[in-house]
Specification:
CATH architecture: 3 Solenoid
Distance between the termini: 13 Å
Family: Belongs to the dynactin subunits 5/6 family. Dynactin subunit 6 subfamily.
CATH topology: UDP N-Acetylglucosamine Acyltransferase, domain 1
Structural class: mainly beta
Function: Part of the dynactin complex that activates the molecular motor dynein for ultra-processive transport along microtubules.
CATH superfamily: Hexapeptide repeat proteins
Order of helices and strands: EEEEEEEEEEEEEEEEEEEEHEEE
Number of strands: 23
Largest sheet: 11 strands, mixed
Helix content: 10-25%
GO biological process, one term: mitotic spindle organization
Radius of gyration: 16 Å
CATH class: Mainly Beta
Strand content: 25-35%
Number of domains: 1
GO cellular component, one term: dynactin complex
Protein name: Dynactin subunit 6
Length: about 190
């Protein structure tokens, strides 16, 4: 039996080959990882839930010995940086936003573009961080319409990304070349 870190990819998940995956990483069903993402389970495993969207140049790193658990239906926009100890569900981490240290993020939160949390922060549910001074407020209404848009966005990405990128498709050991049908990939034991 090998002590080699593993990556598991759930059914209907799409992971572009250009994604850098290091350490023990579990990618939930339906999650989409765009090219140039970096997921680094440096000190402990990373568990990514179902139906998350992780866009280009996102870095998610676990610098702590415990598990970094990411909930379901989150959007990590281009160039954001995530450390943290827990990320809830249905959050939006906007472009170039930063979640620092062992921060714990609740559900239905928005970290605005270029905003950051404090290091080792506890962010309650429905928090919005916005503006030049990283102001905070609480959302008073959440939209069921948002969930419908998220689902349509995932369906679109699952259709389009394999047309233009080499991808690993969840639930099988196959990869696709842009615009082709899936083919078997070799299992490696690095």
């Amino acid at each position: 039996m090998s002590n080699t870190p593993t990556t598991t990819i759930g059914k209907r998940a799409v992971v572009c080959q250009d994604t850098e995956l290091k350490g023990e990483i579990h990618i939930g069903p339906g999650t989409v990882l765009h090219p140039q993402c970096k997921i680094n389970a440096e000190c402990g495993p990373i568990y990514i839930g179902n139906n998350n969207i992780i866009e280009e140049n996102v870095t998610i790193i676990n610098k702590y010995p415990g598990k970094l658990i990411i909930g379901d239906e989150n959007v990590f926009e281009v160039g954001c940086f995530v450390e943290g100890s827990k990320i809830g569900s249905r959050n939006i981490i906007e472009a170039k936003a930063r979640i620092l240290g062992s921060t714990s993020l609740g559900d239905n939160c928005v970290i605005g573009a270029v905003c950051s949390t404090n290091k080792d922060d506890e962010i309650p549910d429905d928090t919005v961080i916005y503006g030049d001074h990283h102001n905070r407020r609480t959302q008073t209404a959440t939209s069921s319409h948002q969930s419908s848009l998220h689902t349509r966005h995932l369906d679109y990405l699952r259709e389009v990304l394999p047309k233009f990128n080499h991808v690993r498709v969840g639930g099988s050991n196959t990869e696709t070349s842009p615009g082709t049908l899936p083919k078997k990939i070799k299992e490696t034991s690095h």
